[in-house]
Write a structure and sequence with these properties.
The chain is an all-alpha fold. It is built from 17 helices and no strands. The longest helix is centred in the middle third of the chain and has 35 residues. The protein is elongated, with a radius of gyration of 38 Å. It starts with a helix and ends with a helix.
C-alpha cells in the first residue's frame, strides 16, 4: 500500500509539473523529491492526514462492498471488474487531493530554497551539508594560500629550468641546488647539535654557545682534512663538490649561531659600540684563521716536490671556496642581526620557533629599505672585486671577494626577515609553521620572477657591470634556501612532539636521518651536476 501511495504521489507531482507552474519547475526535481518526502513523512500534517484518512476509508468501503458482492455474485471475474471500476472512479479524487497538498506545501515556502539545511527537522540524509557557506578561519585561509602558492612555485620551477636563456637556467639550477644543499646541511647540523645538547645535558645560552663553538672548530678541521684526502685519492668531482658544500654549510651554521649567541650576551648587547667591537672581532678572528689555514695548505702542497700540481690546486681552490662560504655566512648573519636590532630598538629572536615581537609596518618598511641599500652595495662591491682580481696579491683578491659575498648573504637574511615582519605586521595571527610556509612560498615565487627580471636587465650591460646583478640572483637563491630551512625546523619540532606535548629526541633524530638519506643522494646525483653543467655552459 505504501508503494502504491508513493507512486500515486509521484504521478500527482508529474501532473503538477505538466500544468506549467513556473515556481515548481524552476526548483526542479530536487524540490519535488523533497515535497514527496515531506508528504510521505508528515503523518501529523493536516493535508497528509486527510489524504491518508480518505484513502483508508475508501479501502475499507471497497473491501466491504467486495465481501457483500461475493455472497450474491459467485463469479470472481465480475467482482474484480466491479472493484476496478470503483477504484478508477476514486482515482481523480485522490489525484486532486495530492495536487492540492503539493501546492499548499510549496506556497508556504515561496522565498526559501527547497534544499534543507543541516540540522533541519525535515532534512533528508542525501541533502545534508548543503548549508550556507561560512567565512573561513585564518588558519583555513592560510592553508589555502599555501596550497595555491605551492602549485605556482612548482610550475615556475619547470618553466625556469627550461627557459630559453642560459643565464636564467643556470641561476635557477643554482637556486635549487643551494636550497636543497642548505636543507640537507640543516638536517645534519640540527641533528648533531641536538645530540650534543642531549648527551652533555647542555642548559642555558652560554652552554649552547660553547657547544656551537666546539662544533664550528671540529667541522672546520674535518672539512679541510677530508677534502685533502678526497682530492688526493682522485675522487669524482661531483662528490668532492657536494662534500665541500655540505661541510661549508654546517661549519657556517655553527659559526653564525655561535656569533648570534655572543651578540645577545649582556656584555655585548647593552651598547651599540660593544656590538660593533664584536663584529670587528669576529671578522678578524675568521680572517686570521683562514690566513693561517691557507699558509698551512700551501706548505703541505709544496712539501712533496716543491710544485703545486693540478690536483693540489683543485684542493686549494675547493677549500678556499668553502672557507669563503663560512666567512660570508657568519659575518652576513651577524650584520643582519645588528641591523634588525638597530631598526627595532632591541635584539630580535632568530630562532624559527619564536615569532617577531612588537613589529609594525614602519619596522618592516625600514628593513625593506635596508635590504635595498644592501642590494645596491652588493652590486657596487663587484667593482671592488674586479679590481682585486687584477691585483697581484692573493690576500687582496680574497678580501675583495669576501666583501661581495658578505653583502650578498646579508641581503638574503634581511629579505627573509622582512618577509616575516611584513606578514605579522599585516595582522597574521595563525600557527607559526603556517606563517613560515606562507613566507617561504611567497618569497620563492617572487624570487623566480626577480631572477628573470634581473637577467633581462643584466643582458643590457657589459659583463663586468652585469656581474653584480648576477650575484644578486645568487642572493635570492640563498634566501629561498634559508626560508625553507626555517619552515622545516618547525616541522621537525611538531613531528617530534607526542599527544601529551612531550619532546622525543629519538623521533627527531630518526626523521632527520631518514630525510637526509633521501634528499642528499638525490641532490648529489641529479641536482648538483645539473647546476655545475649549467654554470660551465654559461
Amino acid at each position: 500500500m505504501q508503494v502504491l501511495t508513493f507512486f500515486r504521489a509521484f504521478v500527482a507531482a508529474w501532473c503538477l509539473l505538466s500544468t506549467g507552474d513556473l515556481s515548481l519547475s524552476n526548483r526542479g526535481f530536487l524540490g519535488v523529491a523533497e515535497a514527496l518526502e515531506v508528504y510521505s513523512d508528515s503523518a501529523n500534517s493536516e493535508p497528509g492526514f486527510q489524504l491518508r484518512h480518505f484513502q483508508h476509508e475508501s479501502d475499507l468501503q471497497i473491501e466491504s462492498q467486495r465481501s457483500q458482492q461475493s455472497q450474491h455474485w459467485p463469479d470472481h471475474r465480475a467482482n474484480e471488474r466491479q472493484r476496478q471500476q470503483q477504484q478508477r472512479a476514486l482515482e481523480p479524487v485522490f489525484l486532486a487531493l495530492a495536487h492540492k497538498h503539493l501546492r499548499d506545501h510549496l506556497e508556504t515556502r515561496p522565498d526559501k530554497d527547497l534544499r534543507t539545511t543541516e540540522g533541519s527537522e525535515n532534512a533528508v540524509p542525501w541533502q545534508r551539508e548543503i548549508s550556507k557557506p561560512t567565512p573561513p578561519s585564518p588558519e583555513a585561509r592560510a592553508y589555502a594560500i599555501s596550497l595555491m602558492l605551492a602549485v605556482v612555485v612548482v610550475m615556475c620551477v619547470f618553466y625556469l629550468v627550461n627557459w630559453n636563456d642560459d643565464d636564467v637556467r643556470a641561476n635557477t639550477w643554482s637556486t635549487l641546488s643551494m636550497t636543497v644543499s642548505i636543507f640537507g646541511a640543516v638536517l645534519i647540523f640540527g641533528t648533531t647539535v641536538r645530540l650534543c645538547y642531549w648527551v652533555f645535558n647542555v642548559k642555558g645560552l652560554r652552554g649552547e654557545t660553547f657547544v656551537l663553538f666546539v662544533l664550528f672548530s671540529v667541522s672546520f678541521v674535518v672539512m679541510q682534512t677530508f677534502l685533502n684526502i678526497m682530492l688526493r685519492t682522485q675522487a669524482h668531482r661531483t662528490l668532492v663538490c657536494s662534500f665541500g658544500t655540505i661541510c661549508a654549510h654546517i661549519t657556517g651554521f655553527a659559526g653564525m649561531y655561535c656569533a648570534a649567541g655572543l651578540q645577545v650576551l649582556p656584555i655585548f648587547a647593552t651598547t651599540w659600540w660593544a656590538s660593533c667591537l664584536l663584529l670587528a672581532a669576529i671578522t678578524l678572528a675568521l680572517a686570521g684563521m683562514f690566513m693561517v689555514g691557507s699558509h698551512l695548505r700551501r706548505n703541505i702542497a709544496l712539501a712533496d716536490d716543491g710544485i703545486i700540481d693540478e690536483e693540489e690546486m683543485r684542493w686549494l681552490r675547493q677549500v678556499e671556496d668553502a672557507e669563503n662560504d663560512v666567512f660570508s655566512l657568519c659575518l652576513g648573519f651577524s650584520i643582519m642581526q645588528a641591523l634588525r636590532c638597530w631598526i627595532s630598538g632591541a635584539w630580535q629572536p632568530y630562532d624559527a620557533r619564536i615569532p617577531p615581537d612588537h613589529i609594525g609596518q614602519s619596522e618592516a618598511n625600514a628593513l625593506l629599505a635596508t635590504s635595498m641599500a644592501l642590494c645596491i652595495l652588493t652590486a657596487a662591491s663587484t667593482k671592488l672585486s674586479h679590481i682585486g682580481e687584477e691585483a697581484a696579491h692573493a690576500g687582496l683578491k680574497r678580501c675583495c671577494r669576501g666583501v661581495t659575498n658578505v653583502c650578498s648573504v646579508a641581503v638574503a637574511w634581511c629579505l627573509l626577515f622582512w618577509g616575516e615582519w611584513q606578514l605579522y605586521a599585516a595582522g597574521f595571527q595563525g600557527v607559526r609553521i603556517t606563517g613560515l610556509l606562507i613566507v617561504a612560498l611567497s618569497l620563492t615565487f617572487l624570487s623566480f620572477f626577480a631572477i628573470v627580471g634581473l637577467d633581462l636587465v643584466a643582458d643590457t650591460f657589459h659583463r663586468t657591470e652585469a656581474r653584480g646583478l648576477r650575484i644578486l640572483m645568487l642572493s635570492l637563491g640563498l634566501m629561498v634556501g634559508f626560508t625553507w630551512e626555517r619552515a622545516f625546523h618547525i616541522g621537525f619540532d611538531a613531528l617530534s612532539l607526542d599527544s601529551k606535548g612531550q619532546y622525543h629526541e629519538s623521533a627527531r633524530l630518526g626523521l632527520a636521518a631518514g630525510l637526509a638519506l633521501l634528499v642528499l643522494p638525490a641532490w648529489s646525483l641529479y641536482i648538483l651536476p645539473s647546476a655545475l653543467k649549467a654554470q660551465e655552459h654559461n
